[in-house]
Amino acid sequence: MPAVEPPPTPWGFPPAEVWPDDDLVAVGADLEPGTLLAAYRAGLFPMPHPGGTVGWWSPVERGVLPLAGLRRPRSLRRSARRFEIRVDTACAEVIDACGDPRRPDGWIDDDVKAGYLALHELGWVHSVEAWHEGRLAGGLYGVAIGGLFAGESMFHRETDASKVALLGLVDLLSDEHAEGRLLDVQWATDHLVSLGVVELPRPTYLARLAAALELPLPALLERPRAG
């Protein structure tokens, strides 16, 4: 099912040539589908900003997971056998779990949830889920545009479930266009670095992004959505 292009955003983001040497590029605008897509295509992503506004970020050093660089220790491969990977069968539940207010440093508020669920309904946001014995054990969600998958957040209710979902995502993206695909994780935290995430300077990321956007969407993300 091809994604539906929403009405264009009325907002304009500053061109990359004038971005500050800082992760925060701009403040304001909204979380409508057209605005979100314009931001990701430009190399930006939103997070809430003090005062109830939206901040638009492009890290000077961007976290990216090379598909061939994902570390698959034996213990994780064993854990993966316990789970069934599904795509887009419970996207709303995945986003709710990622936005659980009990999680430390939570930033996914109701406005963020609504914005990404609207994009999911249009076919741009996808969830990759790890299921165990009929229960959602963990998962992740993100924005897919051509060869870009911009990971937003992940969660787990059982040990290794979110890591197994990440394995599933990498396998899903590893098709004949894998070399040009871009799996963006925003910032390279210690946990993500342990899985194989590297940092790209902003200009390198933006060049990779421009090329990735020209690629087709992975076939498994074009199937009918259930969640």
UniProtKB/TrEMBL annotation:
Q: Which GO terms describe its biological process?
A: protein catabolic process
Location (main, coarse): cytoplasm
What keywords does the record list, in alphabetical order? Acyltransferase, Cytoplasm, Transferase
Which GO cellular component terms are attached? cytoplasm
Pfam families assigned to the protein according to its UniProt record, in alphabetical order: Leu_Phe_trans (PF03588)
Q: Which SUPFAM superfamilies match?
A: Acyl-CoA N-acyltransferases (Nat)
Leading EC class: transferase
- Role this protein plays: Functions in the N-end rule pathway of protein degradation where it conjugates Leu, Phe and, less efficiently, Met from aminoacyl-tRNAs to the N-termini of proteins containing an N-terminal arginine or lysine.
- What NCBIfam families is this protein classified in? aat (TIGR00667)
Protein name according to UniProt = Leucyl/phenylalanyl-tRNA--protein transferase
* Organism from which the protein derives: Nocardioides euryhalodurans
User: Corresponding gene?
Assistant: aat
